[in-house]
Amino acid sequence: MSGGITPQLAGVIGWPVHHSLSPLMHGYWLKQYDIKGAYVPLPVAPQDFGRCVAAMPLMGFAGANVTVPHKEAAFALAATLDEDARATGAVNTLVFEDGVVHGRNTDVRGFAASLAESLGEDAAKRGPVAVLGAGGAARAVLIALARAGAREIRIVNRTKERAENLARAFAQSSNIRTMAWGDWAGALGGAKLLVNTTSLGMTGKAPLDVSLEELPREAAVADIVYNPLETALLRAARERGARTMDGLGMLMHQAVPAFAAWFGVTPKVTPELRDVLVKALARA
Ligand code: ATR
Prior knowledge:
The structure is a single chain. The chain is an alpha/beta fold. Helix content is about 40%, strand content about 20%. The chain is built from 11 helices and 12 strands. The protein has helices at about 20-30, 50-55, 70-75, 85-90, 105-120, 135-145, 160-170, 185-190, 230-240, 250-265, 270-284, and strands at about 10-15, 35-45, 60-65, 80, 95, 100-105, 130, 150-155, 175-180, 195, 220-225, 245. It has a 6-stranded mixed sheet with strand order 2-1-3-5-6-4, with helices on both faces. Strands 9-8-7-10-11-12 form a 6-stranded parallel sheet, with helices on both faces. Strand 11 (about 220-225), helix 9 (about 230-240) and strand 12 form a beta-alpha-beta unit.
């Protein structure tokens, strides 16, 4: 609803949630599109998640984003699931409509849109893709890559079993191989795209120690981490002359369908919005 009499509310449920850029991003769009609404951070402990979500429609919420550690709980709780929520087993967006809690996953579309925008529509098709990590984020990235036409995907993960489980799930759509963590020559040799889906390299986490030696010069490198904006991986890639994609694009693009569902306007991802977020990251 845009410009109506009843303010529309939405928010992000997490634990912790104070670091989230989503209130700033959705607040920017609310102002830009002159919508009477608000988007607030909602710190909710895991044991309270179900009761809190049940109360939100009663308080006028149109929906909410769901972040760590609630994405699987949101998946279990939602009455309906969209295709990407079913495929990932995780819900990052709740939409409340006529007493029904709808669960959606917009991370897949967020990564796909960012990839196309930053590295081109054919980024996944140019040759083998190496994916670091096999967690929830990796699953969303793999779905997007398979959909974007990746034919050969190499999953590199510390825990082999997790990589193999993920590989089995994608065996139908792509040629998937798993590689040992540290086998950088095997994983990156001949690859045309490298994607980090782990949280390594994020401020406060352990560094991501990858040797890019074997990565072809023309390969592109993407990181879903956006804090810092230029991770050590992206810096190393840039210094080799590779094209890079940081994590802010995915963050902004995953928010578009959520905002549209709650507030009735499809917002635009613009350089100005990116600037607002970059400045906030610099202040944090
Ligand atoms: P998310 O849902 O955000 O992807 P996750 O499911 O906990 O989070 O996955 C985190 C990913 O980072 C996993 O691939 C994890 O590897 P394991 O499957 O071996 O746990 C990876 N990861 C985390 N810390 C790591 C480390 N110190 N070295 C290598 N990989 C690490």
